[in-house]
Each structure stands twice: as structure tokens, then as C-alpha cells.
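Regression report. Comparing outputs from two consecutive submissions.

Submission 1:
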Amino acid sequence: MEVPCVRVSLEEGEQTRRELADADLIDDEYELTVEDGRLYVPVTDPGAVPDTLEVVSMAVPERDTQTTPADVLGFDPSYERLGKTVLLDEDDDVRARKIADAVLESDLPVDTVLNKQSKVKGETRVRDWDLLAGEDTEVVHREYGCEFALDLADVYFSPRLATERHRVAEQVSEGERAVDMFAGVGPFVIPFAKRGAECVGVDVNADAIEYLRENARRNGVEDQVTAICADVREVTAEYEGWADRLVMNLPHSADEFLETAVALAGDDCVLHYYDIQHEDDPFGPGERAIRDAAEPEYEVSVETRHTVRSYAPHELNVCLDVRLERDDGHDS
């Protein structure tokens, strides 16, 4: 079957393969193939491949030698991948250990297995983990051409939101000024900066802010990123009227920070507001809260009503992309 592949000369093949492997872009389900004196490397996300490399569609053979955890167990376990770490959510410790052993026995490029031991808790939104295999809870995760270091015991991070973060990042233009009000380790800030934005990331978690600074360095955007450890309400005065784009990914309580968001917004600002609501009216409460906070100072227009994922039975995690345009009839 035809799949997206990077096509390079054989002389450049090994260096290119290493670069793609470092970016976690090689599609392990297909074989690397040589044809007409060139190497074809199957990739998982052609959009994240550097512009300097050529991407083509090519029929390459599937790999049939990969042993999966399901092959070892006889059933298909549920897990998430984050870099070289597998994350489990198993209540039964014996079952969790059995799955961990199967993961390590499989051909997955994994060296750490963690099992969730608590729900996300506290102001810093971290959880407890049981380390079933590996050295520690620190991981390096690659996502759409960006690299993130983080410690799951100290910061919140969800790999499930990668597609959503990419959707938002693709809207960013060079020269924008963006504020992520709950920035974490930088999964919005870093791709924004790589697209040429000047970014401010704020978070109350000091560990997350240290990783945000490290991740800015890892991705070569440290000159475009300001990382601040604080409640975002404490930095409003310094950045009042500054932002062309705001991210509010704190879905259970973002509405409590809308007054701050309005203060940070420039004359023409896009707000990405995340919410969790009942499926009967997933967007209404957020839209009403934004209008209550921003009108009449700003004209409010909802550009996108987007369902991110199902959160719980009858509850949806949603995002409102909202444009705030200052009404010239009102003073700032």
C-alpha cells in the first residue's frame, strides 16, 4: 500500500533516518525501502517533516516481524505511549504487572512502564504513578516536530491532546504575540514560537515552568519564549492589552479567569477557550461566560465550536475559538 515516505539519496540515508528517528516520525509498521538508488523512509506525519526533505507517496512493504504486547498476552491491552514510556490505567496491580512484562517483551521501543495510581489532583494537576519498569518518571516526548522533556510525577501532560494542539498551532502566524495562561511544559507555547510567535507562558507549577524553559532551549526558541511562574492574574498588569492570541486550557475552571483574559487581550485577539460541559449544551455556557466578560468592550464572534474529545459519560471536552475585537466606542 502507498504511504508517505521521505525520499533521499543513499549517501544521505543514514543521517536522514537518524534525524527522523530523533523526531519520532518513522512509521515502524512499514519497511525502509531502496529503489532506483534512493532510500524511502515511511513517516507517520508528513506535515511534521522538515521542509528541507522531500515527501512522496510510495508503495512499501509492511513489517511482519513486530511482536506486540497483544501477541504476548493473548488480548489487546489499553495503554498510551509517551516517548519511550507506556502509561497504563489499571486498578488490578497483578494485571498491570502482567501488561508491563508483555510491553517489555514486545518489540515496542519502550524502556519505562507507569501505572496511574491517582486522578489528577491539586492546583498543579499532577497524579501519582507506580513505576513498573524503568528508572524514573521523566520522559522525552516528540509531537509534530517539537520535543518536550517532562516529569510525569511533577507536571500535567496529556498525549491525547496532540492533534488538538496542532490544530490550534496551525492558526498561528509569524509575528503574533501569544499568551498561554496555563502553559505547563509548553505544548502550545513551543509550536507557537516555532511558527514565529512571541510567546509568554504562565503557570503556577514551578517544575512545569523549568521544563518550559528547557523545552524552549531544546527546540531553539528560547529567545521567543518568556516563562513565568505565577498565577496568571498576578502578571496581568505587565501584559495588559498585549496579546493577539490567548490559550485557556484549564477546562474545569477557565471561566474564573475570563476577566484576566479580557485584560490581556489586544485590540484584535483570538481566544482558545477550553471547557467541559454536558453534551446537551456543550458550547453555550462557555460562550455566555465569554460574552459576559468581554462585552461591550469587545465585539465577540465565535469562529469555531470544536469538540476535542469525550470526557465522561454525556460530558464533552470542547474548545471555542473566539475573536475579540475592541469596540472603538469603548475605552480600554
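Submission 2:
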Amino acid sequence: MSPGDFSLTEEPVLSRNALSRDENRRLDPGYVRDTWAKARVVVVDESGRTPVDWEVEPGREFREVDAAAWDDAAGRGGHVRTRAGTDVAAEPPAEAVLLGEREGVPYWAVRVGTERTADSDIFTGEGEWADLRAAGAFLDPLGSGLLTGAVATLNWHDRARFCAIDGTRTRPHDAGWARVCDNGHEEYPRTDPAIICLVHDGADRVLLARQPVWPAGRYSVLAGFVESGESLEACVHREISEEVGIAVSDVRYLGSQAWPFPRSLMVGFHAIGDPDVSLTPQDGEIADALWITRDTLRAALARGDWGTRDEPDPTGGPVVMLPGKVSIARTMLESWAAAGG
């Protein structure tokens, strides 16, 4: 085992999925046609929101509850509110997406406009309209899989209405998992891979950085998109060098998580860097970068998702705010913090 090696202590929250996908069912016209009568449908508005039911302790908002405290077996958590397929339409809408099946129940996703959410009884009632960034960390595994898959595929449909080869209009095909243009060219949902890397010194320090658009004091681990013809590991070396000006070694895979904003896949790694090498933040990309100790990181994690810089750090280190639990970055940081003595 290499110095400072560790693994994720839990699955990234948007990787949780209780849904069974089956490509053969998407390609079966009979299944697609007949399944609508018993389907449940996830409705997603133009802002990526869907109705969510929250079961929380009296007087507490869901955003105030530590995700680790949710107990799905006890009925506490967030649940995506689905609708009967026949309540949405008599047959699958042209741009509906067959997400998968669970315990014999097929699940679909449809995009709805904001005017429908306000005017139709189908979309009203108890529940709160929430998106993945706000709600993803608190959803049960079924809800997480449903909303992540729905947002990712519907985002792709919104951006794939014209053929990349000849410019003609495309139409949905294969239960929403392909689009075909007037000349028969097929296109499939795009996923843009990106690496996200926790750089540490092999001992007790971790490297954090801040983008210029983030609030002062908010830091995370480094990330960047994979370029054409580039391996994931090569991207780790390039991105770290470009963004903070240091070389890393011993690149190790940690895990992955969908990040459909609009269509990314975050592939997590950790690597070793030298804290004695001067950091050179990339102009326009990184506003600031710094090394902090494991104890300082633990203090930041203890402040929770909504901790602020107004709370002093008991270790005497810099006060930093960290990414929320919906991000794989949070899982990576929590796992590294837990790995030390």
C-alpha cells in the first residue's frame, strides 16, 4: 500500500441507484407500449426540479439535517414524487425517457414546462419542487437514481435536437435513449468525463483550491475535463499541473459519480503532491490554493454543509467552507479525513 492510501468510506450520493436498467426493454416496442399503463413518471421542469416529499423531524427543514442521520428503513428521507403514466398522458409522450424498472414497476421521465407545474392538478399537492443540487444528498437510493438519470437524459435531449452530421432535425428513438435524424443518423446520450482529484502529501496535509466565482472561503479539491485522446490518469497530471503548478505521483482511483450539469461524469482519484513546492494558481481558473492539515479539515467538516467563516477554527488553522454532500468531492474529503489517526 502506498503512503497515505485510502478508499471511499461510502458510496457517492448520486451513485446510489435502486433502479434496474435494461437496454433490451428499450428496444422492445411491445414492452414500451404496454408498460405505460403501469408506469410511474418522474416529472422534471425546465430548471431541473421535481416534486419531492420530505419526512423530517417536526420543525426541521430538510436542508438542516445531516445526510448521515437519514434512515430510509425508518421512513425518514427524501422521496421523489412520481405520477401514474396514464395521469400524465394516454401513451408515452414522444420525448419521454424509460429510466428503468424496480420490483416490476417501470419508471419514465418527462420534461414539463413551468406553466404546467402551476396549473395542473397532476403537479400540485404536498411536496416541494427541488433540484439535484439542493436535494440529491437527501434522497433515498430510488429517488437519487430516478432524478439523476432523468436530469441527465432530458438535458441531452434538450441539446440534441439537430443532427451533428447534417444539421437536420432529430426525433427521439428507443424509448428516449437515442435520437434519429431525417437521414437516419443516430445519436446517443452524451457523457463528458471529468477527473476530480484529492491531492495530499502522503501524511497529514491536503491541497484545496477555490474558483474565482466561489464565495470567499469556499474551497474544494481540483477537477477538470478530460480532453480528446487523453487517459484519465494523464488528465489528472495535466490538470493539477495547469491549475496549481505542481507535479503529482501515485495516482489512484477512488470512485465515480454522475454530475448531470448538464452531462458530466466525475471520476475521482487521489494523488501525492509535495507541499514544499510553491503553488502557482492558474490565472482565471483558480483564485487561491492552500494546504491544510487533517485536523483543520475535520473542523471544517464538523461545521456541516452550511458552516460559515464566522465560526472560528478550533485548530487555529484557516476557516474554510467545503462542498456539500451532493458532490463526490465531499465524500472524498470525508474519507481522507477518516483515514488518518
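Expected: both submissions complete independently.
Actual: both completed, but the second showed a warning that disappeared on reload.
Relevant detail on submission 2: Residues 141-158 form the longest helix (18 residues).
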